[in-house]
Amino acid sequence: MGKNYIAVDLGAESGRVMLGNVSNDKLELKEIRRFENGAVDQDGTLRWDFARLFCEIKKGIGEAIEAAGGKVEGLAVDSWGVDFGLLDAEGDLVEYPYCYRDSRTDGMLEKAFELMDKRAIYANSGVQFMQINTVYQLLSMKLNNSPALARARTLLFTADLISYLLCGRKYAEYTLASTSQLMNMETGQWSQEIFDGLGLPIELMPEVVTPGIRVGELSPEICSELNCEPVPVYAAGSHDTASAVAAVPASDENWAYLSSGTWSLLGVEVPEAIVTDDAFEMGFTNEGGVGGTIRFLKNIMGLWLLQECRRDWKEQGRELSYGELAEMAGNAEPFFGFLDVNYDEFLAPGDMPAKINRYLEKTGQKTTEDKGQMARLILDSLAMRYRREIQKVEKASGRAVEVLHVVGGGIKNELLCQLTADAIGKKVVTGPAEATASGNILVQAMGAGQIDSVETARRIVTNSFDLAEYLPRDTAIWNEKYAEFIQLQERDEDVS
Ligand code: LRH
């Protein structure tokens, strides 16, 4: 029979409500509702379409409860990191939540370093310096005397904000909170030093809770709207990547993970934060994991580049599916050129093909108007970047990596999976695509006492999904091209 749990899984490109049935050794997942997501323009600012998202989520929850015949043991929400909503004294949203790609954080890293030593921020938070981080979003509000910030009494990160709207409890789940760069990774609590150093209001921050705890149940208002009985609400790994890593089907081999979607998160699981000079210089992040672990990883721009090219081409009248794009990329010239996929200009939405060509021009490479060629260039560049980061992660963590487990929607791009194996010269195991929802549900099952550990969760995932393997090919040519890639990247880094 098993027990039913609902996962609300919010990604930057789409949201999903999934129903999972967990029995002794097996997880069965059913997609109940999928809806588009994406930042929207609001008077020249980039925001999330929050009312629509919440409406889709409620509909999905109602449908999931119905599909489960009313028998649901838990519900939890996970989402992308760093973004947040602000609540006023009445507990109402002060304004629509911003998208981390909004330009309000331009220049904020430099401002922060004028106020607090960069190395000290890293020693404290252990987080990779990216302008999207909550800390720089808040700093920009503070420095611009934001009226919304002045009215705010509580800050809730995206998944926790949805959870609050569902069950009424205000909290900051640890894994999601750790993406903010406002947490002290040694204590797992808000960093007084960073709040004081940057002059930010620590009193906005709610209590930190650990993944797997029961935070409440669906509120009477939601139950009457959905015409359902109260369902227990859990804090999963509220951070999508934390949930995904909890569902990596690995056992005892030396493995690294790559959570592949809009972003590529590549790293290893370690027992404690690594904030050494090496980790600092190589730009690694230490995010909180499920089960007391740390996700030591690099945040790589990921399939965003391809998603944005696709959006641009569609606006110009040529709509291509991801499958078509992958096929065109497969027929295009390999190693046409290389991009630094984390190049600053690629962060904001819009004009991606033009931005890519500008980058190629700037770095003395051939440009292209061919869509398949551009897609191939992006995939080759991602694969090469994975190789570089695996080498760095091995050095900074002192761990040898033998297998790379790739999870998330990005595994549907089989060409990228093969190129990844070719580039890194190691075995790649892919699956499940729905790792985030799986992890979300299995963390609830841990919280509900149905399963005992992350190891058990991973065994269940291994039993429940078809995994694929990719072995490296053409090693000599990839080695040769890697040398070119590195030369180009290092030259570019010297320029910037
Ligand atoms: C991936 C992700 C990633 C980053 C980004 C903002 O969805 O959570 O870990 O933090 O979104």
Topology diagram in text:
Blueprint: E1 3-10, E2 14-22, E3 27-36, E4 39-42, E5 45-48, H1 50-67, E6 74-79, E7 84-87, H2 108-115, H3 118-125, H4 134-143, H5 147-151, E8 154-157, H6 158-167, E9 172-173, H7 174-177, E10 183-184, E11 189-190, H8 192-198, E12 208-209, E13 214-217, H9 220-226, E14 232-234, H10 240-246, E15 255-260, E16 264-270, H11 277-281, E17 285-288, E18 294-300, H12 304-315, H13 322-331, H14 352-362, H15 371-397, E19 403-407, H16 414-424, E20 427-430, H17 435-447, H18 454-464, E21 468-470, H19 475-495
Parallel strand pairs: 1-6, 9-12, 15-19, 19-20
Antiparallel strand pairs: 1-2, 2-3, 4-5, 7-8, 10-11, 13-14, 15-16, 16-18, 17-18, 20-21
Helix pairs in contact: 10-17, 13-15, 15-16
Bound molecules: 6-deoxy-beta-L-fructofuranose.
Superfamily at the CATH H level of the largest domain?
ATPase, nucleotide binding domain
C-alpha termini separation: 58 Å
Strand content: 15-25%
CATH T-level topology of the largest domain: Nucleotidyltransferase, domain 5
**SSE class:** alpha+beta
Which of globular, elongated, flat, extended, rod-shaped describes the shape?
globular
Strand order of the largest sheet: 17-18-16-15-19-20-21
Provide a count of the helices. Answer: 19
CATH class of the largest domain: Alpha Beta
Please tally the β strands and state the result.
Answer: 21
- How many domains? The number is 2
Bound molecules: 6-deoxy-beta-L-fructofuranose
Q: Give the % helix.
A: 40-55%
